[in-house]
C-alpha cells in the first residue's frame, strides 16, 4: 500500500514539474514515465486526491500540450502519450450524473486522443478512446432528449451530437482500415451512411472519407476492399445531387474502374467498362477516355469496333497530344493497323495546327520501332525538306527529332551496321545545317567518328574528331577519340597526351555536364577501353599508362585487380631484362606501388559479396605468388626483396591457413627479417640501425606465432626455423641493449635442439658492435665446446676454431681478462685444450701455435706481475 501511495505522489509530482518547467531533454523521459505509470494507476490508488484536483491536473496537462509551441521538440507520438494520460485521468472522475459540459469535455478529449493515436499508427489504443467517445456521445444524446424533444434549440443540439457521432464513427473506421479490420470499418461506415438521412450536410464529408479509404486500399493492392469503398463513395455522393461535384464523382468512378481492372481484368472487364462509361457521362475527361480505350484493349474487341471508339475521341474535341497518347496506347497493345490509321487521320484532322509535326515525329518513331526503316526514311526526308523550306519544326520538337534519329543510329551501331548508323547520323547533321540551336554537334561528330573508325575510314574519323574537339575540347569522350585516332596513326606521344588530358578532365570540376559520380564512371570506362585499344594495336607503353589510370580511379576492386594483373604481365618481362640501375630501381618502386594498390583492393574485395570466396582466394594466391617470385629475383636489390617478401606475406593472409600457406608465410617473414638485420649491420647511424632492428623484431614475433601453429601440423624437426628465430631475436635484443636479454636466454641455454654452431653464433653476436656481452659470449662458447666433445665423431677443426674464439675472449691482447673469468678457470681451459690435443689427431698446427703464444704471453704477464699459479 505504501508503495502504491508513493507511486501516485511521484506521478502527481512528475505532472506538476512537467507543466512548470521549460522543455528540456528530460521532458521526453518524463512523458514516457507518465505514459508507463498511468496503466498501473486507478481511482482507488488515488483515493487521497479529490476529483477536482485530478480534473485540474488532467486539464492543465491537456492545455500544456496544446498551448505550448513544442512541435519542434516533442513529436506527434509524445503528444499522443500526453493526451492519453490526461484523458485517462479525466475518465477516473466520470460520474453517472455528470454535467453536459463535463461530457462535452470527455468527448473532445477522447476523440482527439484517439485521432492522435491513429495519426502515429497505433490503432489499438485509438479504438479504445473512440469507443469511449461514442459512449459519451450516446449519454449526451440521452440527456438532451430527456429535456424537451420538441424545442427547437434541443433539436439543434441533438443534430450536433449526431454529427459528432458520425465523425467519431468515421475515425473509428479509419483506425480499422489502418489495422486491416475491413468488417469493423464497413460496419462503422454503413452506420454513418444510415445517419445521412438526418445529416444531409455530412454527405460530402462521408463521400470523401470513403474515397480516401478506397484510394488507400487500392495502393495496398486490396482491390476488393477498394471497390467496396469507392462504390460507397459514389453511392453516398449521389444521395444529394448538390453536395458533391460531378467531377469528383467521375474521379471516384475512374478509380473504381481501375480497381476492377487491376483486380481481375478478364472477369471484371465489362463491369469496369460500364463504370467508366458512367464516369464519362458524369464528366467528360481525357483520363476517362484514355481509361476506356485501355479497358477495351483488355478484351478481344475487333479492330473495326476499336477504331469506332477511338474516332469518338476525335469527335469529342480532344487535343492532339491526347490523341497521340491514344496512338501510343494502341501501339503498345500491338494494334498497329488501328494505330497507324488513327495517326493518319490525326494528321489530317490537325493539319492546320502547328503541332502536326509532333504527329509526324511520332509516326517516324513508331515505324522505326517496328523496323519499317525505308518508310521511316521517307518521312524523315519530308521533315528535313519541310524544315529547310519554310515549315520549321517547333523548337521543343527539334530535340525529339534528334532523339528519334540517334536512337535508331544507336540500334544500328549495336548490331555493327555502321553504314546504316552513319546514314541516320547524317540526317541529324543535315538538320543541324538548318538549325544550330539544339543539337550537340560535338557529340554527333564523336558518334560519327566511332562509326568511321569501325569502317576503317580513318581520314574521315580524324576529320570528325577535329570538328568535335573544336566545339568541345574539354569533353572526356572527345579526348578518347583523339586517343583512338592517335593510336591508329601510330602516334604514341599524342596518344599519351590524350590520356593525360583525359585524366586531367576527370580530376577537375570544370566539366559540369555530368555529376561527379557519372563523370568518374565514364572516365574509368574510357581508361579501360583505351588500354584494350592500345594493346590491340601494339602500343604497350600507352596501354600501361591507361591501365595505371584505370587502377587509380576505378572504385570496383575486381576491375582494379584485373588492371594490375595486366600491368604486371606487361611490365615484369621488360624489367627483368634491365641492368641494375637507377631506372630499374624506379621501375621496381612502381611495381611495389602496384602491389600496395592490389593489397588495398583485395581487402575491399573480401569485404564485398559480389564474388565467391573461392574466386577471391584465387586472386589473393595470384598476387601472393607473383610477389614471391619477384622477391626471389631481387638478389642484387635486398630492399626490394624485403618489400616483396612482406607483400607476399600480407597477400597470403587472405588465403586459408593450410600447411602450404603457413610455410610460405614463415619463409617470407624469415627472409624479410634477415634483410632488415643485414641492413641494420650496414646502417650509418644509430637511429637508422634502430629502425631496421625494431622492424626486424616485429617480423620475428609474427614469424614465431606462425611457427608455433605450423609445428602442430607435422614433423618439422629438421627445419632450422627455431634456431634462426632465436639467433635473429638475440641479435636484435643485444644490439638494442635490451635489459631483459638474460631473461630471454634462460630457456635458450637449456634447449636440446641447438647445436654448437648456434652457440658460436650467439657468442659472435654478443660481441658484435654495438653489442658487448662478454659473459654471454663466454657461456655460449663453453656450451659449443661441450656439444663438440659430446659428438661421436668430433670435428677437430671446428673444435679448434671454437677454442680459438674462447681463448681470444679470455686473453685479449695477451693479457688475461680476470674480470670476466678467474685466472684458475682460464688456466683450466688451457689444460682442457692441451689434453684434447694430446688425445686427438689432426689438431691444426696454427691453432696449436696460437695456444702456445697465448700461454707464453700469459706467463710473461704473470711473471711481471709477480703472480704464481700452482
UniProtKB/TrEMBL annotation:
Q: Which InterPro entries match?
A: Spo22/ZIP4/TEX11, TEX11, TPR-like_helical_dom_sf, TPR_rpt
Q: Which GO terms describe its biological process?
A: male meiosis chromosome segregation; reciprocal meiotic recombination; synaptonemal complex assembly
| Gene Ontology CC annotation, any one | central element
- The domain of life is Eukaryota
Q: Where are the TPR repeats?
A: 442-475
Question: Would the keyword Nucleus turn up in this protein's UniProt record?
Answer: no
Q: Which Pfam families match?
A: SPO22 (PF08631)
Write the record's keywords in alphabetical order, separated by commas.
Answer: Meiosis, TPR repeat
The record, for PANTHER family, names:
TESTIS-EXPRESSED PROTEIN 11
This chain belongs to which protein, by name?
Answer: Protein ZIP4 homolog
